[in-house]
Amino acid sequence: MTGSPAGALGSFDLEDAPSMDGLRACVHCGICLPQCPTFRVLGEEMDSPRGRVYLMRAAAEGRIGLTPTLARHLDLCLGCRACESACPSGVPFGQLIEAARAQLERRGVRGAGSDHGALGFLLAWFPRPRRLGALLRALRVYQRSGLRRVVQSLGLLAPFPKLRTMEALLPEVPDGVAVPERVSAQGRRKGRAGLLLGCVQRFLYPDVNRDTASLLSAAGYDVLAPPAQECCGALHLHAGRLDEFRAMARRFMAVWDSDLDVIVVNAAGCGSALKEYGHWLGDEDSEAFARKVRDVSEVLAESDLTFGSLPETVAYHDACHLAHGQRIRAEPRALLRRIPGLRLVDLRDSDLCCGSAGVYNLLEPAIAEELGRRKVECIRETGARIVAAGNPGCLMQIAQHCRAAGLDIEVAHPVSLLARARGGR
Ligand code: SF4
Ligand code: SF4
């Protein structure tokens, strides 16, 4: 290591510094490059995983400083972790970039005028259920009163590209769907499951939570969905706001009964963050909590649930934080294949990011739009009538790009299809 003052790792300080072993694990083979969405769109080495690891290592060795240019290359990363799946050397890219972003964030490297300037605003609203609920209720009035049509037809949001992206992404805000706080197990009892309600999921896709609870109950679980649960902190973690993330994670863990057998998650980004609580909080309680976390598809795949016929052609999109963050690919597909009459078709580049990536599509609309456009072309090739994805951000992003491309297709969470095949809806 060069140029590293005492109490520092090169240009990083030691508080949540990226792991030097992780950075050194990169052997520059380049296998990750074709799997990286930003490299595929931009074609720049510094916007590839290998380039970003090179930059982080150069900073960790004191060869470059923490500059706005470095921040820009790291900010353009979607955090999709496709590079982790591809990497034969086990470079822990997700943890490296989250640690590096934490330093950029804490030390104010980006400056007020950066493209990431909207991040603070988004993090003040999105992961706070009470505020988000109030905002979405107001937006429901905006959508239903006809104001939305007026705003769109007059192009009033044209001078505000980020606001326009946000407005276009927003699906019809549904009326509230109550998810019972407790649902009893049916049949042979398997255990007690806590259900994460999520921030976006509970307001924009509340039926996914209701269907998850009813499928878990049918699979033999008593389900508890504490209404006091707030945000798990996933967006803050991925943005590098580690102090806030840790505070949110501790508040989140405090609302669950300690004797739950499993904490079930139906939002890939949240599940991935919860499974990393042990790493980031570094104590036994958080490690024990993280060990209980499972995606809904993992739990249901082990059940003996049976389904009625659903004669549909379905393409499955791998949400990044399921396929790459949690290595869950087989379970959702296996569950969908258990539905009689349902034909599951291959989707090209099914595990290439759709451009959603938390709030990335709001911060970096140009790259997100290109990825959304590419995803829709892959979906179009399949001829499917339904595309399934296990993450609310993907549902919104894919649905919006299908609408924009004039592709008439239903975008649904796998649990919605499973519930429908059991006669739920
Ligand atoms: S996390 Fe995704 S966008 Fe970022 S470097 Fe890896 S593959 Fe590329
Ligand atoms: S695949 Fe892994 S080792 Fe190879 S360049 Fe990418 S990050 Fe480095």
Strand content: 5-15%
Largest sheet: 5 strands, mixed
Distance between the termini: 60 Å
Number of strands: 11
What is the helix tally? 24
Oligomer designation? single chain
Strand order of the largest sheet: 3-5-4-6-7
Taking Cα atoms only, what radius of gyration do you get, to the nearest Å? 21 Å
- Percent helix among the residues? 40-55%
Question: Could you explain the architecture of this structure?
Answer:
- The structure is a single chain.
- Strands 3-5-4-6-7 form a five-stranded mixed sheet. Strands 9-8-10-11 form a four-stranded parallel sheet, with helices on both faces. Strands 1-2 form a two-stranded antiparallel ribbon.
- It has helices at 20-24, 37-42, 49-60, 68-75, 82-86, 93-106, 119-125, 129-144, 147-154, 161-169, 200-204, 206-218, 234-239, 242-254, 268-275, 277-281, 284-292, 296-301, 320-323, 330-337, 360-363, 365-382, 392-404, 414-421, and strands at 8-9, 12-13, 182-183, 191-195, 221-224, 262-265, 293-295, 313-316, 343-345, 386-388, 410-412.
- With 425 residues, it is an alpha/beta fold.
- Bound molecules: iron/sulfur cluster (SF4) (2 copies).
- One iron/sulfur cluster is lined by residues 35-38, 49, 52, 77-83, 93.
Summarize this structure as a short list of keywords or feature phrases.
single chain, 425 residues, alpha/beta, five-stranded mixed beta sheet, four-stranded parallel beta sheet, 24 helices, 8% strand, globular, binds iron/sulfur cluster
Show the helix and strand layout.
Blueprint: E1 8-9, E2 12-13, H1 20-24, H2 37-42, H3 49-60, H4 68-75, H5 82-86, H6 93-106, H7 119-125, H8 129-144, H9 147-154, H10 161-169, E3 182-183, E4 191-195, H11 200-204, H12 206-218, E5 221-224, H13 234-239, H14 242-254, E6 262-265, H15 268-275, H16 277-281, H17 284-292, E7 293-295, H18 296-301, E8 313-316, H19 320-323, H20 330-337, E9 343-345, H21 360-363, H22 365-382, E10 386-388, H23 392-404, E11 410-412, H24 414-421
Residues 35-38, 49, 52, 77-83, 93 line the site of one iron/sulfur cluster.
